[in-house]
Design brief:
Layout (H helix, E strand, L loop, with lengths): L1 E10 L3 E9 L4 H9 L44 E2 L7 H5 L2 H6 L8 E6 L19 E8 L5 E4 L11 H10 L3 E3 L2 E3 L9 E6 L10 H13 L4 E4 L13 H11 L3 E5 L26 E7 L6 E6 L4 E5 L6 E9 L7 H13 L6 E7 L19 E6 L24 E5 L1 H12 L8 E3 L3 E2 L29 E6 L1 E4 L8 E4 L2 H18 L5 H10 L5 E2 L2 E5 L2 H4 L6 H6 L2 E4 L3 E2 L10 E8 L5 E13 L20 E4 L3 E4 L4 E9 L12 E10 L2 E9 L13 E2 L4 E2 L1 E6 L2 E4 L4 E4 L3 E5 L9 E7 L8 E2 L18 E3 L2 E3 L1 E6 L12 E3 L2 E3 L5 E3 L3 E10 L11 E5 L3 E4 L14
Helix pairs in contact: 4-9, 5-6
Length: about 900
C-alpha cells in the first residue's frame, strides 16, 4: 500500500485532518482497516467523486463537443439589441428581484463563494478582472485545465468545457451590457455582491472529489464568505452522516455560513415514473439549503428570418445567423440518423459547393430531441443546423430548446430552433416553392423573449425529495433554473449561453439569500431560509394545473425575495415535518407569527393541499399511475384567526390531518401541503411533508388471506410438496421447511423465535384459529432463554439492520436449529412449538414487546423419525 498526500485541513472548529490517495490493488475494506489501526487516527472515511449536472438535460454544458476549446484573443461579441419593449428580466421578475433592484438593493456587502469550474473573469459583465477592486475579489484553484493538480490563486477558466462556473457566477452577479448594437440588458440577482471563486473541476468537468470540495469550503470560510454556492452533487446518497464533507458543511452553517446546494437533476420527464427520494448528497443534509428548478417564464432570445415567400418566422438561438443573402435548406428525415448519414449529407453539400450557404434541417420529436443529433459533427461540422418541431404531445417539448455553446462539432456550429406552428408554415412554403428556389434570409439581429408554455412550472428533471426515511423536506425552495441565459467564456459563439438545471437555480437562491442578508445581517442562516420559504409561491403541477405540485418536488415553491424583505410580518419555521409525535399522537405542529409592524394585526390561518405520491417499493408490483395524485390532508386549527400586537409574536399550535381516503401505506407514500397565513396584503405559505399515516400504528406484516395463498406463512415439506401450517401439524424434526413473512413498512427490528406452543400472548395476527381447542404436549426441556420477557427456545432470525418492505422466503432450511444468546445453535427436541415473529414499529423501543407487531404460528409438533403425511388436528378435543 502506497499513500500519497492530497490535502491537509487545519480549520479548528470546522475540521482538522488530511486526505490521502492510496495506490495499489488492496481491497478497500482492508485498506480502511489498516488506516484505522494507525496510532492517533480517530476516523477514516472514503473520498467520493462528485459531479455537475446530468449531461442528458438539454441546454447542459457537460455536453461540450470540444471541452478544451478556448480563445486567448476572442473575437468581439455578436451584435444584438432588444426589440422595442423587450427585456431579459423574466427570471428576476418571477422572483421579485427586479423590484428590489429598483430600490437599490443589490447585495452590497455580502460575500459569496462559488465552488465550481472556475470563471472567465475577463468577461465585461463580470468586471473584466479579479482582485480587491473587482466584483470577483479572489478565490483559489486546485486544478489546471487538463486536470493536473495545482495550488494557485488564479482560477481563470477560458475553456468552453469549464464554462459552467462562468454561467453560475453570472446568475449571481453579472451586470447588464449596453454597448450600442451589443446590448444584453440582463442582470444577475445580486450584482453588487462580492464573489470568490474556487475551482475544483477541470475543462472536462472531471476532478472534483469530496476532499477537494472540503478544501474549497474551508478556504471559503477563511476568506470570510457569507454564502457558499455549490451546483454539484453525488447523485446517489451515501446516507453516512459521519462523512467529513457533511460534517464540514454542518459546522459552517453553525458558524453562520449558508451552504446552498443543487437538489440534483435525476427527475424523469414521465408523469408515470416513481420519483420520490432522489435527493443527492450533500443536499440531503438538513442544515444545507437544497434548491429545485423552475422553468424560465420566457425564452430569452428569439430572432426572426424571412423566407422567399415573404413570411417572417421566429427562431430561437443564442446568437442570430447573419446571412442577408439567404440560405438554402437541406432536409433530413431524422436528426437522430447515424453519423454516416450525416457524413453523406455534408459530403453532398460540399461537392455542390453549398455547405456554407445551406442550413441542414431535421425534425424535433418526442423521441428525437436536438441532443440526439450529435452524430452530425463527428468529423466535419456544418455551419448551420435547424430543428423543426413536429411533435408537441409533451408540454416540456413544446417550447424552444437552445443548444448550449460548443454543443456541436468544433464549437462554431450555429443551431436554431423553430416551434411546431412555425415549422408547419415553413414546410408548407417550402413545398409550394420550386426545388432549389426556397431560401431563408437572416438580416435581423434584434431579439424578443416570448412566454413559454411551461414557464413558471417545475422543471421535469428537478429531483424529488423528501429525505429517505426521515421525510425532511427536500428541496427546501425552488428558483428559475430552466432555460437560463448567463455569462460564458469569451470566444466564437461564446460570451453568453443558455443552460438548464438545478445548477442554475442554486446560484439564483444564493443571490436571493445575499439580498436578504444585505438588509438583515443579524439574521441566522435558518432565519433567512424561513423568510425565503414562507414568502415563496406554491406552483401548480405541470400535468394538472388544478393541483399544487408536491412539496417533495418544489419545497416551498418559487422564491419571492421582494416579499421576504418587504413584508412586515414573519412566520417560522419555513417548513414543517408531519409525522408521529408519539405512539398515540400524529401531526401536531407549531408555527410562530411575528408582527414587526406598528399596529396590531389579525392573521387568518388556512390549509392548501399539495399532491400525494408513491415510490413503488419492492414489495409491490409495477403499476401505471400518475406520480402525483390529488389526495390531500387537512389542518385542524383551534381558531381560524390569531391577533398579534405590534412588536409581539404568537405561537400557534395545530394539527395536520392525513388524507381520509386513498392512502396506501404499503406503498410508502408521501404527502404534503401548505399552511397559509394571511394578513392584509401579506400572504405566507409554510410547506410540509411527511407520511400520510402514522408510521408507528401502520400495519407491518404483509397480509394475504385468499383461497390460494396465505401470508404470513410457515410451510413444511411432505413428500414433494410444501404444506402451509395453519393448524396443528406433526412434522419430523429433520423435515425441510420454509417461510413467507413479508413486511409492508421499513423496520430496524425483525426477529423470529421458537417458543412453547402454550405461550401466553395475544399476537397482532394469529397464524391459526385461536378458538380451536388444543391439548399441549410440552418439550422434555424447559425453555433455556427468553425474548421480550417471554420464554423462548432460541432465535431463528434476529436483524437490527434497516430492512425495506419485502416478501421472501426467510428463514428456511432442513431441521430447525435455534440460536441461544451466546450464538450456540442446537436442534430442538420433540414437543409442541410455535414461531413468534416480531417486527419493530418505526420509532418503537426494541426492548418493549408492545412496540412490535407480532405473528404467532400454528403448533408445530416435532417428532423423531419421518412423517410422510401431514396429520391435522392431533389431540383435538
Amino acid at each position: 500500500m502506497h499513500l500519497l498526500f492530497a490535502h491537509e485541513y487545519r480549520s479548528p472548529g470546522a475540521y482538522v485532518g488530511l486526505s490521502i490517495r492510496v495506490a495499489g490493488d488492496g481491497d478497500p475494506d482492508t485498506v480502511l482497516a489498516q488506516l484505522e489501526a494507525v496510532p492517533g487516527v480517530l476516523s477514516v472515511s472514503p473520498v467520493y467523486e462528485m459531479f455537475l449536472s446530468d449531461p442528458n438535460i438539454p441546454d447542459n454544458s457537460t455536453g461540450i463537443a470540444n471541452p478544451f476549446l478556448s480563445y486567448a484573443d476572442p473575437p468581439a461579441m455578436p451584435g444584438v439589441v432588444p426589440k422595442p419593449g423587450e427585456s431579459l428580466t423574466s427570471t428576476l421578475e418571477m422572483a421579485g428581484v427586479d423590484k428590489l433592484h429598483q430600490l437599490g438593493i443589490k447585495g452590497k456587502g455580502v460575500k459569496i463563494g462559488i465552488v465550481d469550474t472556475g470563471v472567465d473573469y475577463r468577461h465585461p459583465a463580470l468586471g473584466g478582472g479579479f482582485g480587491p477592486d473587482f466584483k470577483i475579489a479572489g478565490g483559489w484553484s486546485w486544478l489546471a485545465d487538463n486536470g493536473t493538480a495545482v495550488e494557485s490563486d488564479d482560477f481563470l477558466t477560458t475553456c468552453y468545457g469549464g464554462g459552467h462556473g462562468t454561467h453560475v457566477a453570472g446568475i449571481i452577479g453579472m451586470d447588464p451590457l449596453s454597448d450600442g448594437d451589443r446590448t444584453l440588458n440582463i442582470s444577475g440577482v445580486a450584482p453588487e455582491a462580492t464573489l470568490y471563486i474556487y475551482r475544483v473541476f477541470d475543462c472536462a468537468t472531471n476532478g472534483e472529489t469530496t476532499d477537494r470540495v472540503m478544501a474549497a469550503m474551508l478556504r471559503a470560510r477563511a476568506d470570510g464568505v457569507d454564502i457558499i454556492s455549490m451546483s454539484l452533487s453525488i447523485q446517489e446518497s451515501w446516507q453516512d452522516r459521519a462523512d467529513p464533507l457533511l460534517q464540514v458543511a454542518s459546522r459552517l452553517v453553525d458558524a453562520g455560513i449558508a451552504v446552498i446546494v443543487a437538489q440534483g437533476n435525476s427527475g424523469s420527464g414521465s408523469k408515470y415514473d416513481p420519483q420520490l427520494y432522489r435527493t443527492s448528497t450533500p443536499a440531503e443534509l438538513t442544515s444545507i439549503i437544497s434548491v429545485g428548478s423552475v422553468a424560465n417564464r420566457d425564452t430569452p432570445l428569439v430572432y426572426t428570418f424571412t423566407d422567399s415567400q415573404g413570411t417572417t418566422i421566429p427562431y430561437a438561438a443564442l446568437w442570430p445567423i447573419e446571412s442577408p443573402e439567404g440560405l438554402e435548406i437541406y432536409s433530413l428525415d431524422s436528426g437522430c440518423s447515424s453519423s454516416s448519414q450525416w457524413e453523406e449529407a455534408i459530403s453532398l453539400l460540399e461537392d455542390q459547393g453549398k455547405l456554407n450557404t445551406t442550413i441542414i434541417a431535421f425534425p424535433i420529436t418526442d423521441t428525437c430531441r436536438y441532443t440526439g443529433t450529435r452524430g452530425c459533427c463527428s468529423s466535419r461540422s456544418p455551419p448551420y443546423l435547424m430543428g423543426l418541431y413536429s411533435d408537441t404531445s409533451d408540454p416540456y417539448h413544446v417550447d424552444y430548446e437552445v443548444a448550449s455553446t460548443g454543443f456541436y462539432g468544433d464549437g462554431s456550429v450555429q443551431y436554431i430552433a423553430v416551434n411546431a406552428n412555425d415549422s408547419a408554415r415553413l414546410l408548407a412554403n417550402m413545398n409550394a416553392t420550386e426545388p432549389g428556389q426556397y431560401r431563408l434570409f437572416f438580416n435581423d439581429s434584434s431579439y424578443s423573449s416570448p412566454t413559454k408554455l411551461v414557464g413558471g412550472k417545475m422543471d421535469y428533471y428537478s429531483s424529488f425529495g423528501p429525505n429517505y426515511l426521515t421525510y425532511d423536506l427536500k428541496p427546501q425552495i425552488s428558483a428559475p433554473g430552466g432555460g437560463i441565459l448567463s455569462t460564458w467564456p469569451l470566444g466564437d459563439q461564446g460570451y453568453y449561453t443558455i443552460l438548464s438545471g438545478t445548477s442554475m437555480a442554486t446560484p439564483f437562491i444564493s443571490g436571493c439569500y445575499a439580498l436578504v442578508k444585505s438588509q438583515f445581517p443579524e439574521l441566522s442562516v435558518g432565519e433567512i431560509l424561513s423568510l425565503l420559504q414562507s414568502t415563496s409561491t406554491p406552483i401548480p403541477w405541470i400535468w394538472n394545473d388544478t393541483m399544487i405540485a408536491g412539496t417533495f418536488q418544489q419545497g416551498a415553491g418559487l422564491v419571492n425575495v421582494y416579499n421576504a424583505i418587504t413584508y412586515q410580518s414573519r412566520v417560522s419555521p419555513g417548513q414543517l415535518l408531519v409525522s408521529d409525535n408519539s405512539r398515540t399522537s400524529y401531526g401536531a405542529v407549531n408555527i410562530t407569527i411575528e408582527n414587526h409592524s406598528d399596529s396590531p394585526r389579525t392573521y387568518t390561518l388556512s390549509h392548501q393541499g399539495a399532491s400525494y405520491s408513491e415510490p413503488n417499493p419492492p414489495n409491490n408490483p409495477v403499476y401505471s399511475q400518475e406520480n402525483q395524485l390529488p389526495i390531500y390532508g387537512s389542518a385542524e386549527f383551534e381558531s381560524p384567526t390569531v391577533e398579534v400586537a405590534p412588536g409581539e409574536s404568537a405561537l400557534v399550535s395545530f394539527k395536520i390531518l392525513p388524507p381520509s381516503s386513498g392512502v396506501k401505506p404499503e406503498r410508502i407514500p408521501v404527502f404534503g401541503g401548505f399552511v397559509k397565513v394571511t394578513s392584509d396584503d401579506e400572504e405566507f405559505s409554510v410547506p410540509y411533508s411527511g407520511p400520510p399515516y402514522s408510521l408507528y400504528n401502520a400495519e407491518y406484516w404483509h397480509i394475504v388471506n385468499t383461497t390460494s395463498a396465505v401470508q404470513p406463512q410457515l410451510s413444511y415439506k411432505f413428500g414433494d410438496t410444501y404444506e402451509v401450517i395453519t393448524e396443528l401439524r406433526e412434522v419430523s424434526s429433520s423435515s425441510p421447511y420454509r417461510s413467507l413473512i413479508g413486511r409492508d413498512q421499513y423496520t430496524r427490528g425483525y426477529r423470529i423465535d421458537v417458543v412453547p406452543a402454550n405461550i401466553s400472548i395475544t399476537p397482532s395476527i394469529f397464524g391459526f384459529d385461536p378458538a380451536e381447542p388444543y391439548s399441549y404436549q410440552p418439550s422434555a426441556t424447559a425453555p433455556p432463554t427468553s425474548i421480550l420477557g417471554l420464554p423462548s427456545y432460541g432465535t431463528l432470525v434476529n436483524s437490527t439492520d434497516l430492512l425495506s418492505p419485502s416478501t421472501f422466503n426467510w428463514p428456511s432450511g432442513t431441521g430447525v436449529e435455534a440460536a441461544l444468546d451466546d450464538g450456540t445453535e442446537y436442534a430442538l427436541g420433540p414437543g409442541d412449538y410455535r414461531w413468534l415473529a416480531c417486527v419493530l414499529r418505526w420509532g418503537g423501543d426494541p426492548n418493549l414487546l408492545q412496540d412490535y407487531e407480532t405473528w404467532l404460528s400454528a403448533v408445530i409438533r416435532l417428532v423423531d423419525g419421518p412423517v410422510s403425511t401431514p396429520l391435522a388436528g392431533l389431540e383435538a378435543a
